[in-house]
Amino acid sequence: MSSVFHRIPKRHLPVAVKGDGMYIFDRDGKRYIDGYAGGACVSCLGHSQQEVIDAIRHQVGEMAFFHAGMFTSEPLEELASILTTDAPEGLTRVFFTNSGSEAVETAIMMARQYFVEVGDPRRKKVIGRRSSYHGAGLTGLSVGYQVARRTPFEDISPSVFHISPCYEYRGRLEGETPEQYGLRTANELEQAILGLGPESVMAFVAETVTGTTSGATPPVPGYFKRIRDICDKYGVLLILDEVFCGLGRTGTLHACEQDGVAPDFLTFAKGIAAGYQPIGATMVNQKIYDAIVGGSGTFKGGYTYSGHATACAAAVAVQKILRAPGFLDHVKATGNVLAAQLKDRFAQHPHVGDIRGRGMLMTLELVENRETKAPFPAALGLSSKIYQSAQAKGLITHAQSGTVDGHVGDHVVICPPLIAAQENIETITSLLSEAIAIALEDVR
Ligand code: PLP
Protein backbone atom coordinates (compact mmCIF):
# COMPACT_ATOMS: atom_id res chain seq x y z
CA MET A 1 0.00 0.00 0.00
CA SER A 2 1.27 3.48 -0.89
CA SER A 3 2.13 5.84 1.93
CA VAL A 4 2.16 8.82 -0.43
CA PHE A 5 -0.54 11.40 0.22
CA HIS A 6 -1.71 11.62 -3.40
CA ARG A 7 -3.92 14.63 -4.11
CA ILE A 8 -6.71 12.42 -5.50
CA PRO A 9 -6.11 9.14 -3.66
CA LYS A 10 -9.15 7.45 -5.21
CA ARG A 11 -7.81 7.85 -8.75
CA HIS A 12 -6.04 4.80 -10.16
CA LEU A 13 -2.47 5.90 -10.87
CA PRO A 14 -0.35 3.70 -13.13
CA VAL A 15 3.38 3.77 -12.33
CA ALA A 16 5.20 5.71 -15.06
CA VAL A 17 8.68 4.38 -15.74
CA LYS A 18 9.71 5.91 -19.04
CA GLY A 19 9.02 8.84 -21.32
CA ASP A 20 9.93 8.92 -24.98
CA GLY A 21 8.92 11.77 -27.30
CA MET A 22 5.11 11.79 -27.41
CA TYR A 23 4.78 8.71 -25.21
CA ILE A 24 4.80 7.60 -21.58
CA PHE A 25 5.23 3.92 -20.62
CA ASP A 26 3.97 2.40 -17.39
CA ARG A 27 5.53 -0.38 -15.35
CA ASP A 28 3.41 -2.99 -17.12
CA GLY A 29 4.76 -1.91 -20.50
CA LYS A 30 1.59 -0.12 -21.56
CA ARG A 31 2.19 2.85 -23.88
CA TYR A 32 0.18 6.09 -23.56
CA ILE A 33 0.18 8.90 -26.10
CA ASP A 34 0.47 12.20 -24.28
CA GLY A 35 -2.44 14.45 -25.21
CA TYR A 36 -1.84 16.64 -22.20
CA ALA A 37 1.90 17.34 -22.36
CA GLY A 38 2.87 15.54 -19.21
CA GLY A 39 0.15 17.09 -17.07
CA ALA A 40 -0.91 20.59 -18.01
CA CYS A 41 1.64 21.49 -20.68
CA VAL A 42 4.63 20.36 -18.75
CA SER A 43 6.68 18.38 -21.20
CA CYS A 44 5.98 20.75 -24.06
CA LEU A 45 9.04 19.44 -25.90
CA GLY A 46 8.07 15.84 -25.36
CA HIS A 47 9.82 13.38 -23.14
CA SER A 48 13.56 12.58 -23.33
CA GLN A 49 14.90 15.58 -25.32
CA GLN A 50 18.61 14.89 -25.49
CA GLU A 51 19.83 18.54 -25.45
CA VAL A 52 17.92 19.20 -22.25
CA ILE A 53 19.14 16.02 -20.58
CA ASP A 54 22.74 16.87 -21.52
CA ALA A 55 22.40 20.41 -20.15
CA ILE A 56 21.10 19.08 -16.82
CA ARG A 57 23.86 16.46 -16.59
CA HIS A 58 26.52 19.04 -17.31
CA GLN A 59 25.22 21.52 -14.74
CA VAL A 60 24.79 18.93 -12.00
CA GLY A 61 28.37 17.83 -12.63
CA GLU A 62 29.68 21.40 -12.38
CA MET A 63 27.53 22.85 -9.60
CA ALA A 64 23.99 21.65 -8.98
CA PHE A 65 22.92 24.58 -6.80
CA PHE A 66 24.07 27.47 -4.72
CA HIS A 67 21.86 30.10 -3.11
CA ALA A 68 21.33 32.78 -5.75
CA GLY A 69 21.25 35.44 -3.04
CA MET A 70 24.97 34.86 -2.60
CA PHE A 71 26.25 33.86 -6.04
CA THR A 72 24.71 34.36 -9.43
CA SER A 73 25.44 31.65 -12.01
CA GLU A 74 26.00 31.45 -15.74
CA PRO A 75 22.76 29.55 -16.53
CA LEU A 76 20.77 31.99 -14.38
CA GLU A 77 22.18 35.02 -16.20
CA GLU A 78 21.81 33.37 -19.61
CA LEU A 79 18.20 32.38 -18.99
CA ALA A 80 17.24 35.89 -17.89
CA SER A 81 18.95 37.32 -20.93
CA ILE A 82 17.05 34.96 -23.29
CA LEU A 83 13.69 35.66 -21.67
CA THR A 84 14.06 39.43 -21.60
CA THR A 85 15.44 39.74 -25.15
CA ASP A 86 12.08 38.97 -26.77
CA ALA A 87 9.71 39.86 -23.92
CA PRO A 88 6.65 42.07 -24.36
CA GLU A 89 7.46 45.78 -24.23
CA GLY A 90 8.76 47.10 -20.92
CA LEU A 91 9.38 43.70 -19.31
CA THR A 92 13.10 44.04 -18.78
CA ARG A 93 13.65 42.06 -15.59
CA VAL A 94 12.87 38.55 -14.49
CA PHE A 95 12.64 37.01 -11.03
CA PHE A 96 12.80 33.21 -10.73
CA THR A 97 10.61 30.96 -8.62
CA ASN A 98 10.06 27.21 -8.41
CA SER A 99 6.49 27.02 -9.65
CA GLY A 100 3.63 28.88 -11.24
CA SER A 101 1.93 29.49 -7.89
CA GLU A 102 5.05 31.22 -6.62
CA ALA A 103 5.39 33.23 -9.84
CA VAL A 104 1.88 34.66 -9.39
CA GLU A 105 2.43 35.27 -5.70
CA THR A 106 5.71 37.05 -6.50
CA ALA A 107 3.94 39.34 -8.99
CA ILE A 108 1.33 40.25 -6.39
CA MET A 109 3.95 40.86 -3.72
CA MET A 110 6.02 43.00 -6.08
CA ALA A 111 2.93 45.00 -7.07
CA ARG A 112 2.24 45.71 -3.41
CA GLN A 113 5.84 46.54 -2.64
CA TYR A 114 5.94 48.88 -5.65
CA PHE A 115 3.07 50.95 -4.27
CA VAL A 116 4.61 51.01 -0.81
CA GLU A 117 7.96 52.11 -2.26
CA VAL A 118 6.42 54.91 -4.33
CA GLY A 119 4.49 56.23 -1.33
CA ASP A 120 1.02 55.05 -2.33
CA PRO A 121 0.37 52.38 0.31
CA ARG A 122 -3.43 52.72 0.10
CA ARG A 123 -3.32 50.55 -3.03
CA LYS A 124 -3.73 47.03 -1.75
CA LYS A 125 -6.84 45.54 -3.41
CA VAL A 126 -6.57 42.88 -6.08
CA ILE A 127 -9.18 42.07 -8.72
CA GLY A 128 -9.30 38.67 -10.40
CA ARG A 129 -11.81 36.85 -12.60
CA ARG A 130 -14.26 34.11 -11.84
CA SER A 131 -13.16 31.02 -13.75
CA SER A 132 -9.44 31.17 -13.48
CA TYR A 133 -6.63 29.30 -11.82
CA HIS A 134 -3.58 31.06 -10.44
CA GLY A 135 -2.06 28.43 -8.19
CA ALA A 136 -2.62 26.30 -5.15
CA GLY A 137 -1.25 28.48 -2.36
CA LEU A 138 -3.54 30.79 -0.41
CA THR A 139 -2.71 33.73 -2.68
CA GLY A 140 -3.30 31.80 -5.90
CA LEU A 141 -6.51 30.22 -4.64
CA SER A 142 -7.91 33.57 -3.54
CA VAL A 143 -7.03 35.37 -6.79
CA GLY A 144 -8.22 32.39 -8.84
CA TYR A 145 -11.70 30.99 -8.68
CA GLN A 146 -11.73 27.21 -8.61
CA VAL A 147 -14.70 26.99 -6.32
CA ALA A 148 -14.16 23.49 -4.98
CA ARG A 149 -10.51 24.09 -4.19
CA ARG A 150 -10.76 27.55 -2.65
CA THR A 151 -13.88 27.15 -0.50
CA PRO A 152 -12.28 25.52 2.58
CA PHE A 153 -9.66 28.28 2.72
CA GLU A 154 -11.77 31.35 2.05
CA ASP A 155 -11.80 32.46 5.68
CA ILE A 156 -8.02 32.46 5.93
CA SER A 157 -7.19 33.87 2.47
CA PRO A 158 -6.58 37.42 1.31
CA SER A 159 -9.84 38.89 0.08
CA VAL A 160 -10.00 39.44 -3.67
CA PHE A 161 -12.78 40.94 -5.78
CA HIS A 162 -13.74 38.98 -8.91
CA ILE A 163 -15.31 40.03 -12.19
CA SER A 164 -16.72 37.89 -15.01
CA PRO A 165 -14.35 35.94 -17.20
CA CYS A 166 -14.25 36.52 -20.95
CA TYR A 167 -16.15 33.34 -21.80
CA GLU A 168 -17.82 33.86 -25.13
CA TYR A 169 -19.68 30.55 -25.35
CA ARG A 170 -21.70 31.25 -22.21
CA GLY A 171 -21.42 35.01 -21.90
CA ARG A 172 -22.08 36.56 -25.31
CA LEU A 173 -25.64 37.74 -25.72
CA GLU A 174 -27.74 37.13 -28.78
CA GLY A 175 -27.15 39.84 -31.37
CA GLU A 176 -23.92 40.96 -29.72
CA THR A 177 -20.70 40.79 -31.79
CA PRO A 178 -17.65 39.20 -30.16
CA GLU A 179 -16.06 42.66 -30.00
CA GLN A 180 -19.11 44.18 -28.28
CA TYR A 181 -19.13 41.30 -25.84
CA GLY A 182 -15.43 41.82 -25.15
CA LEU A 183 -15.91 45.51 -24.41
CA ARG A 184 -18.92 44.89 -22.19
CA THR A 185 -17.05 42.24 -20.22
CA ALA A 186 -13.85 44.28 -19.93
CA ASN A 187 -15.88 47.26 -18.73
CA GLU A 188 -16.76 45.25 -15.63
CA LEU A 189 -13.21 45.95 -14.54
CA GLU A 190 -13.84 49.69 -14.65
CA GLN A 191 -17.04 49.26 -12.64
CA ALA A 192 -15.17 47.17 -10.09
CA ILE A 193 -12.35 49.71 -9.76
CA LEU A 194 -14.85 52.56 -9.33
CA GLY A 195 -16.84 50.53 -6.81
CA LEU A 196 -13.81 49.63 -4.73
CA GLY A 197 -12.30 53.12 -5.00
CA PRO A 198 -9.59 53.64 -7.64
CA GLU A 199 -7.12 54.89 -5.03
CA SER A 200 -7.27 51.51 -3.27
CA VAL A 201 -6.82 49.12 -6.21
CA MET A 202 -3.38 47.66 -6.77
CA ALA A 203 -3.63 45.03 -9.53
CA PHE A 204 -5.81 43.08 -11.91
CA VAL A 205 -4.83 39.45 -12.53
CA ALA A 206 -5.93 37.31 -15.48
CA GLU A 207 -4.80 34.34 -17.53
CA THR A 208 -4.40 35.51 -21.13
CA VAL A 209 -5.92 32.22 -22.31
CA THR A 210 -7.37 30.27 -19.41
CA GLY A 211 -6.05 26.78 -18.88
CA THR A 212 -7.68 24.55 -16.39
CA THR A 213 -10.79 25.96 -14.75
CA SER A 214 -12.98 26.41 -17.81
CA GLY A 215 -10.78 24.54 -20.19
CA ALA A 216 -8.86 26.60 -22.72
CA THR A 217 -10.81 29.82 -23.16
CA PRO A 218 -9.23 32.49 -25.34
CA PRO A 219 -10.34 36.12 -25.03
CA VAL A 220 -12.35 37.72 -27.85
CA PRO A 221 -10.57 40.32 -30.01
CA GLY A 222 -10.15 43.66 -28.27
CA TYR A 223 -10.87 42.41 -24.75
CA PHE A 224 -7.36 42.78 -23.34
CA LYS A 225 -6.74 46.10 -25.14
CA ARG A 226 -9.71 47.50 -23.27
CA ILE A 227 -8.44 45.91 -20.03
CA ARG A 228 -5.02 47.51 -20.56
CA ASP A 229 -6.64 50.94 -21.17
CA ILE A 230 -8.71 50.66 -18.00
CA CYS A 231 -5.67 49.66 -15.94
CA ASP A 232 -3.71 52.61 -17.35
CA LYS A 233 -6.58 55.03 -16.72
CA TYR A 234 -6.72 54.16 -13.02
CA GLY A 235 -3.05 53.37 -12.38
CA VAL A 236 -3.79 49.68 -11.73
CA LEU A 237 -1.02 47.17 -12.52
CA LEU A 238 -1.85 44.41 -15.00
CA ILE A 239 -0.61 40.91 -14.14
CA LEU A 240 -1.02 38.39 -16.96
CA ASP A 241 -0.60 34.79 -15.92
CA GLU A 242 0.83 32.71 -18.77
CA VAL A 243 1.91 29.79 -16.62
CA PHE A 244 -0.30 27.54 -18.73
CA CYS A 245 -0.61 29.35 -22.06
CA GLY A 246 2.81 31.00 -22.37
CA LEU A 247 6.07 30.15 -24.10
CA GLY A 248 4.89 28.77 -27.40
CA ARG A 249 1.74 26.94 -26.35
CA THR A 250 -0.60 29.22 -28.33
CA GLY A 251 1.64 29.38 -31.41
CA THR A 252 3.45 32.59 -30.44
CA LEU A 253 6.07 32.92 -27.76
CA HIS A 254 3.69 34.86 -25.51
CA ALA A 255 -0.07 34.49 -25.75
CA CYS A 256 -0.57 38.23 -25.11
CA GLU A 257 1.30 39.06 -28.33
CA GLN A 258 -1.83 37.97 -30.18
CA ASP A 259 -3.92 40.39 -28.12
CA GLY A 260 -1.58 43.32 -28.76
CA VAL A 261 -0.95 44.11 -25.08
CA ALA A 262 2.03 44.15 -22.76
CA PRO A 263 1.32 43.62 -19.04
CA ASP A 264 3.28 45.02 -16.08
CA PHE A 265 4.01 41.47 -14.92
CA LEU A 266 4.00 38.26 -16.93
CA THR A 267 4.24 34.91 -15.18
CA PHE A 268 5.52 31.62 -16.60
CA ALA A 269 6.27 28.14 -15.36
CA LYS A 270 5.28 25.04 -17.29
CA GLY A 271 6.90 26.02 -20.58
CA ILE A 272 10.18 27.33 -19.19
CA ALA A 273 11.99 24.08 -18.54
CA ALA A 274 9.26 21.93 -20.11
CA GLY A 275 8.95 19.90 -16.92
CA TYR A 276 12.54 18.70 -17.00
CA GLN A 277 13.13 20.75 -13.86
CA PRO A 278 10.70 22.69 -11.65
CA ILE A 279 11.02 26.43 -12.27
CA GLY A 280 8.77 29.46 -12.65
CA ALA A 281 9.39 33.11 -13.47
CA THR A 282 7.87 36.54 -13.06
CA MET A 283 8.76 39.07 -15.70
CA VAL A 284 8.69 42.60 -14.40
CA ASN A 285 8.38 46.06 -15.90
CA GLN A 286 11.44 48.28 -15.49
CA LYS A 287 9.49 50.95 -13.58
CA ILE A 288 8.65 48.42 -10.85
CA TYR A 289 12.24 47.24 -10.67
CA ASP A 290 13.47 50.86 -10.47
CA ALA A 291 11.03 51.73 -7.69
CA ILE A 292 12.06 48.75 -5.56
CA VAL A 293 15.78 48.94 -6.24
CA GLY A 294 15.83 52.74 -5.97
CA GLY A 295 13.66 52.58 -2.84
CA SER A 296 14.37 50.05 -0.11
CA GLY A 297 16.77 48.25 -2.45
CA THR A 298 15.49 44.74 -1.74
CA PHE A 299 12.54 42.73 -2.95
CA LYS A 300 11.00 41.25 0.19
CA GLY A 301 9.89 37.97 -1.44
CA GLY A 302 12.02 35.19 -2.92
CA TYR A 303 12.62 31.51 -2.26
CA THR A 304 15.64 29.38 -1.33
CA TYR A 305 15.65 27.71 -4.75
CA SER A 306 14.95 30.90 -6.78
CA GLY A 307 17.36 30.85 -9.72
CA HIS A 308 18.36 27.21 -9.11
CA ALA A 309 21.36 26.65 -11.40
CA THR A 310 20.33 23.20 -12.67
CA ALA A 311 16.74 24.28 -13.30
CA CYS A 312 18.05 27.34 -15.16
CA ALA A 313 20.41 25.18 -17.25
CA ALA A 314 17.49 22.96 -18.27
CA ALA A 315 15.43 26.04 -19.08
CA VAL A 316 18.19 27.58 -21.22
CA ALA A 317 18.27 24.40 -23.34
CA VAL A 318 14.47 24.38 -23.64
CA GLN A 319 14.25 28.07 -24.51
CA LYS A 320 16.87 27.68 -27.24
CA ILE A 321 14.84 24.89 -28.85
CA LEU A 322 11.67 26.97 -28.64
CA ARG A 323 13.41 29.86 -30.42
CA ALA A 324 15.12 27.72 -33.08
CA PRO A 325 14.12 28.72 -36.62
CA GLY A 326 10.87 27.08 -37.65
CA PHE A 327 9.87 25.74 -34.22
CA LEU A 328 7.01 28.14 -33.55
CA ASP A 329 5.89 27.79 -37.21
CA HIS A 330 5.60 24.07 -36.53
CA VAL A 331 3.50 24.79 -33.41
CA LYS A 332 1.20 27.10 -35.38
CA ALA A 333 0.77 24.60 -38.20
CA THR A 334 0.13 21.70 -35.83
CA GLY A 335 -2.28 23.85 -33.82
CA ASN A 336 -4.24 24.46 -37.03
CA VAL A 337 -4.33 20.72 -37.70
CA LEU A 338 -5.54 20.09 -34.14
CA ALA A 339 -8.34 22.68 -34.44
CA ALA A 340 -9.37 21.33 -37.86
CA GLN A 341 -9.43 17.72 -36.65
CA LEU A 342 -11.46 18.59 -33.56
CA LYS A 343 -13.94 20.44 -35.77
CA ASP A 344 -14.13 17.54 -38.24
CA ARG A 345 -14.82 15.05 -35.50
CA PHE A 346 -16.93 17.06 -33.08
CA ALA A 347 -18.56 20.08 -34.79
CA GLN A 348 -21.76 18.08 -35.39
CA HIS A 349 -21.52 16.02 -32.22
CA PRO A 350 -24.80 16.25 -30.29
CA HIS A 351 -23.00 16.63 -26.96
CA VAL A 352 -20.13 18.94 -27.87
CA GLY A 353 -21.36 22.48 -27.27
CA ASP A 354 -18.16 24.37 -27.95
CA ILE A 355 -14.76 23.76 -29.52
CA ARG A 356 -12.38 26.54 -28.59
CA GLY A 357 -8.78 27.37 -27.89
CA ARG A 358 -5.67 28.85 -29.39
CA GLY A 359 -2.73 27.07 -30.98
CA MET A 360 -1.88 23.84 -29.21
CA LEU A 361 -4.28 24.52 -26.36
CA MET A 362 -7.79 23.42 -27.23
CA THR A 363 -10.95 22.46 -25.36
CA LEU A 364 -14.19 20.64 -25.97
CA GLU A 365 -17.08 21.68 -23.74
CA LEU A 366 -19.59 18.87 -23.34
CA VAL A 367 -23.28 19.55 -22.88
CA GLU A 368 -26.37 17.41 -22.50
CA ASN A 369 -28.32 19.68 -24.81
CA ARG A 370 -26.69 21.78 -27.51
CA GLU A 371 -29.72 24.04 -27.92
CA THR A 372 -30.02 25.05 -24.29
CA LYS A 373 -26.30 24.52 -23.49
CA ALA A 374 -27.45 22.59 -20.42
CA PRO A 375 -24.55 20.57 -19.00
CA PHE A 376 -24.75 16.97 -17.89
CA PRO A 377 -25.62 16.61 -14.20
CA ALA A 378 -22.35 16.67 -12.24
CA ALA A 379 -23.38 13.52 -10.38
CA LEU A 380 -22.96 11.50 -13.61
CA GLY A 381 -19.23 12.16 -13.47
CA LEU A 382 -18.88 12.40 -17.25
CA SER A 383 -15.44 14.03 -17.16
CA SER A 384 -13.96 11.42 -14.96
CA LYS A 385 -15.45 8.69 -17.17
CA ILE A 386 -13.84 10.30 -20.24
CA TYR A 387 -10.53 10.49 -18.40
CA GLN A 388 -10.73 6.82 -17.46
CA SER A 389 -11.81 5.52 -20.84
CA ALA A 390 -9.07 7.58 -22.52
CA GLN A 391 -6.51 6.18 -20.13
CA ALA A 392 -7.71 2.64 -20.80
CA LYS A 393 -7.19 3.29 -24.53
CA GLY A 394 -3.70 4.62 -23.96
CA LEU A 395 -4.48 8.34 -24.25
CA ILE A 396 -3.55 10.85 -21.58
CA THR A 397 -6.01 13.70 -21.62
CA HIS A 398 -7.43 16.18 -19.15
CA ALA A 399 -11.14 15.96 -18.63
CA GLN A 400 -12.57 17.88 -15.72
CA SER A 401 -15.87 19.02 -14.40
CA GLY A 402 -16.20 22.23 -12.51
CA THR A 403 -18.29 25.29 -11.88
CA VAL A 404 -17.37 28.05 -14.25
CA ASP A 405 -18.89 31.39 -13.46
CA GLY A 406 -21.94 29.64 -12.10
CA HIS A 407 -22.12 26.99 -14.84
CA VAL A 408 -21.31 23.41 -13.96
CA GLY A 409 -19.75 21.77 -16.98
CA ASP A 410 -17.50 19.10 -18.38
CA HIS A 411 -14.44 20.14 -20.32
CA VAL A 412 -11.74 18.18 -22.09
CA VAL A 413 -8.46 20.02 -22.55
CA ILE A 414 -6.21 18.87 -25.39
CA CYS A 415 -2.68 20.27 -25.26
CA PRO A 416 -0.14 17.77 -26.60
CA PRO A 417 3.61 18.36 -26.50
CA LEU A 418 4.56 21.07 -28.99
CA ILE A 419 6.70 18.63 -30.97
CA ALA A 420 3.59 16.61 -31.98
CA ALA A 421 3.45 15.56 -35.63
CA GLN A 422 0.27 15.53 -37.69
CA GLU A 423 -0.15 11.76 -37.28
CA ASN A 424 0.10 12.14 -33.49
CA ILE A 425 -2.75 14.65 -33.62
CA GLU A 426 -4.81 12.19 -35.68
CA THR A 427 -4.20 9.45 -33.10
CA ILE A 428 -5.06 11.75 -30.19
CA THR A 429 -8.31 13.04 -31.68
CA SER A 430 -9.37 9.59 -32.81
CA LEU A 431 -8.74 8.00 -29.39
CA LEU A 432 -10.49 10.93 -27.74
CA SER A 433 -13.51 10.44 -29.94
CA GLU A 434 -13.67 6.77 -28.92
CA ALA A 435 -13.20 7.63 -25.23
CA ILE A 436 -16.00 10.20 -25.32
CA ALA A 437 -18.33 7.72 -27.04
CA ILE A 438 -17.67 5.09 -24.35
CA ALA A 439 -18.16 7.59 -21.52
CA LEU A 440 -21.41 8.92 -23.01
CA GLU A 441 -22.69 5.37 -23.41
CA ASP A 442 -21.89 4.83 -19.75
CA VAL A 443 -23.86 7.85 -18.48
CA ARG A 444 -26.93 7.22 -20.61
N1 PLP B 1 -1.31 29.75 -13.06
C1 PLP B 1 -1.87 29.02 -14.03
C2 PLP B 1 -2.53 29.70 -15.17
C3 PLP B 1 -1.80 27.63 -14.00
O1 PLP B 1 -2.37 26.90 -14.96
C4 PLP B 1 -1.15 27.00 -12.91
C5 PLP B 1 -1.08 25.53 -12.83
O2 PLP B 1 -1.72 24.81 -13.52
C6 PLP B 1 -0.58 27.82 -11.92
C7 PLP B 1 -0.68 29.18 -12.02
C8 PLP B 1 0.13 27.18 -10.75
O3 PLP B 1 1.31 26.62 -11.19
P1 PLP B 1 2.04 25.50 -10.29
O4 PLP B 1 1.16 24.32 -10.27
O5 PLP B 1 3.35 25.29 -11.00
O6 PLP B 1 2.25 26.08 -8.94
From TrEMBL:
Entry keywords, A to Z: Amino-acid biosynthesis, Aminotransferase, Arginine biosynthesis, Pyridoxal phosphate, Transferase
Signal peptide bounds: none
CDD domains, alphabetized: OAT_like
Top-level taxon of origin: Bacteria
InterPro entries listed in its UniProt record: Aminotrans_3, Aminotrans_3_PPA_site, PyrdxlP-dep_Trfase, PyrdxlP-dep_Trfase_major, PyrdxlP-dep_Trfase_small
A molecular function (GO) term: pyridoxal phosphate binding
GO biological process, one term: L-arginine biosynthetic process
Cofactors, names only: pyridoxal 5'-phosphate
Entry GO terms, CC: cytosol
Family from the record: Belongs to the class-III pyridoxal-phosphate-dependent aminotransferase family.
NCBIfam families xrefs: PRK07483.1
This protein's name: Aspartate aminotransferase family protein
Organism of provenance: Mesorhizobium neociceri
